[in-house]
Write a structure and sequence with these properties.
Jelly Rolls, Rossmann fold, six-stranded antiparallel sheet, 29 strands, 705 residues, alpha/beta, 21 helices
């Protein structure tokens, strides 16, 4: 019984079909699908557990005078602790790392890093206190620097090791506490963003759409690490699972359009009449597809996880990197993933989207502002003799971080696009792009900072990046990064900012870590205050959320802090880093910069961008010129990308990776085995197509002048 008319359903499909017909009759059609998984309301049952606690001191690995001398004497660069995972079928490992000397974290960028190594010596986990939600006092200072991290191991008992590396800039050592809890659980299917499905009906109702939800969407592996991004052995199984969902989605799309379930008919219809598909779930509840990745590995993540496939009607079953009816892949439908720390966070994101116009009325000129920010260390050249000698000494084969002007002209080009679109653009380049700069370094003494006034001169009041981001509706960022941060200081600050050291460190690594002060990391970004704008980040891995708690992810920190949409790469991003190959010496010279300057001054012509910058520019142009939604703009930009950039050739395409710790960066860079040879690098271009994902409502239409 019920009040008024009551409709009873015997199955999920019956309920969905009823609502689909209702929406068609009421509004003339269905233009929006919400994918969700009700299993995100159910956590695994804990059957038993074991706990470990460690407390110790370790030397600071900051390469500054006092720390370097102390480390040479003690020969202690990390501390290692062992813990056991019992013979559990499914074990959830919860890690809490506390920096017990947090007094200078806000002022200097101190932090602690953690790696967890398997019994076979494989690095399963890499995290840092910069990836955690630090505790703040009422004055905005960090009182406790910490990180909480979780992962699930299946059928793999044994002795694991936790390696702790500390970095304190105004001390030679520091103290930490490490707590590890190993829980036996009844299933590896663990929602990372809890209860998001509870919002599906509200989101669908607002957009006059339907819900497509099923507990069968979820995926977790049963051997080793439970998520494919950290376990290459289960990627094939995970992808087969996603393809089964994709087949069901095509069947649903046929019903929505009243078409036969014929691939060619569906493709023809939806390429002209795209529909919005909003995934209201984390990648465990509704998994991503893992495309091929020439630069994958442990710590960086395996494959290229993305939601592209949910908008792609016709992936070629014999070559899933390509499509059936087009030469290059073409995404017919519009896809975005609505995410957050939990249902409350996602609800706030949806509310900011629905009431966007009312919110921005109170923000004054904010809606007219945009910022374009490019950092240091993004440009590469092969310096004659010196680069070759450096590679011989280091046993590597890579170009040198050396100014070429490429990122400078990308910055100018995108500023021009936004200004032509009517935005007031605030531009930063190099160190000015940092979140914030140094203050009053003399108080710490010259044993730590030899040239305090010099550091402040290059990174202090001139730094505007964080301020401009909070003041802007549209943000573009080009930097080095990782899943929990990106940074702008790189070679200039890590080499202590002093010219002799900077030049030497371009060839022989001498990273001090000083650039961590101004990084955009989780512990700082989640406390920033943004308007409901859009950010596009061209940087490695900053959009990774697969296998990670949302509280550890930079993309989710931005959404938590008020942004309405985040677009970034889930894996390593490539970029050539130079303008032209060189006239006299291959890979070196100033001619590219001179030629680009002449063309800009005489003809108003900018150098052509490549890789993620192409996608970013077309995304921005579609927003400001065509007044498109964020999802439509990204879909259109991706469909233009390969036809534009596929035939471009390069000498090299170095990754834009920065983990926060130079020794880890070097290890990862060596593991990638970079190719430095003239070619199209088409595998990396397909990688680029698939790696950029939208977190936010794909139907969100930001303000346009």
């Amino acid at each position: 019984e019920g009040y008024g008319s009551v409709v009873k359903f015997e199955s999920i499909d019956e309920a969905r079909d009823y609502m689909m017909n209702f929406v068609k009759q009421k509004f003339g059609g269905v233009g929006y699908i919400v994918m969700a998984n009700p299993m995100d309301t159910v956590k695994p049952k804990v059957l038993s557990s074991v706990e470990y606690e460690f407390k110790n001191k370790t030397s600071s690995v900051a390469i500054l005078p006092a720390q370097s001398f102390h480390a040479l004497i003690t020969q202690q660069f990390m501390k290692t602790h062992e813990f056991e995972i019992p013979d559990y079928k499914y074990a959830r490992v919860k890690v809490d790392l506390f920096n017990l000397n947090s007094e200078n974290v806000k002022e200097l960028g101190d932090g602690i890093f953690l790696m967890i190594i398997s019994p076979e010596g494989i690095p399963y986990v890499y995290t840092a206190t910069g990836a955690g939600l630090a505790e703040y006092d009422d004055k905005g200072d960090i009182t406790l620097d910490k990180v909480h991290y979780e992962f699930i191991i299946c059928n793999k008992p044994g002795i694991y090791s936790a390696r702790v590396i500390g970095r304190w800039f105004a001390d030679v050592e520091g103290e930490y506490e490490l707590k590890i809890k190993v829980e036996e659980i009844d299933t590896p299917v663990d929602p990372l963003m809890e209860d998001l499905s509870s919002l599906a009906s509200y989101l669908a109702a607002y957009h006059r759409g339907i819900i497509w939800a099923s507990p069968e969407f979820a995926y977790a592996g049963r051997q080793g690490i439970s998520q494919p991004g950290d376990n290459p052995e289960i990627i094939e199984e995970s992808n087969a699972h996603v393809l089964a969902i994709h087949q069901q989605l095509n069947e649903l799309l046929a019903e929505i359009a009243d078409l036969p379930n014929d691939l060619a008919t569906l493709w023809q219809h939806y390429k002209e009449n795209p529909i919005y598909i909003a995934i209201l779930a984390d990648p465990t509840m509704v998994p991503m597809y893992y495309y091929k990745n020439p630069d994958d590995g442990y710590i960086m993540g395996w494959g290229v996880p993305g939601d592209y496939i949910y908008g792609d009607i016709d992936p070629n079953p014999d070559d899933l990197e390509n499509d059936t009816f087009t030469y290059y892949p073409f995404q017919e439908n519009i896809v975005g993933r609505i995410t957050g720390y939990d249902a409350e966070d996602a609800s706030a994101l949806i509310a900011r989207t629905i009431f966007y116009n009312e919110i921005i009325e109170k923000l004054g000129e904010w809606k007219q502002n945009a910022t374009v920010q490019t950092g240091c260390g993004l440009e590469f050249q092969w310096v004659p003799v010196l680069t070759t000698i450096a590679n011989l000494l280091l046993g590597s084969n890579e170009p040198t971080k050396w100014p070429s002007g490429e990122s400078f002209f990308i910055n100018l080009r995108l500023c021009h696009d936004l200004e032509e679109g009517g935005f007031n653009v605030k531009r930063t380049h190099l160190l000015a792009s940092q979140r914030e700069g140094f203050e009053n370094l003399t108080q710490y003494g010259r044993r730590y900072f030899l040239f305090p006034r010099f550091y402040e001169a290059i990174s202090s009041d001139n730094v505007k990046g964080g301020k401009y981001q909070e003041e802007s509706n549209i943000i573009f960022v080009f930097n080095h990064g990782f899943y929990y941060l990106y940074e702008s200081g790189d070679i200039l600050l890590d080499a202590r900012g002093f010219p002799p050291f900077t030049t030497i460190s371009r060839f022989y690594p001498m990273g001090s870590g000083l650039s961590s002060k101004g990084t955009y990391d989780v512990r700082n970004v989640y406390k920033m205050k943004f308007g409901p704008g859009i950010i596009f980040v061209e940087s490695c891995i900053t959009a990774r959320i697969d296998g990670l708690a949302p509280e550890n992810c930079l993309s989710q920190a931005y959404l938590h802090a008020g942004m309405n949409g985040y677009i970034g790469a889930t894996r390593v991003t490539a970029d050539p880093g130079y303008l032209e190959p060189g006239l006299i010496f291959e890979g070196f010279g100033a001619w590219g910069f001179i030629n680009a300057t002449i063309n800009l001054k005489k003809y108003g012509k900018y150098p052509e961008p490549h890789f993620g910058a192409v996608v970013a520019e077309d995304f921005i142009l579609d927003l400001v010129v065509n007044d498109s939604t964020t999802g439509m703009a990204l879909r259109n930009a991706k469909n233009k990308y390969l036809p534009k950039d596929a035939n471009s050739t390069f000498l090299w395409t170095p990754p834009l990776i920065y983990t926060g710790l130079p020794m880890i960066d070097e290890m990862l860079y060596e593991s990638i085995c970079p190719r430095f040879e003239y070619g199209k690098y088409l595998d990396k271009k397909y990688h680029c197509l698939h790696e950029f994902n939208l977190y936010g409502d794909p139907a969100f239409n930001p303000w346009n002048p």
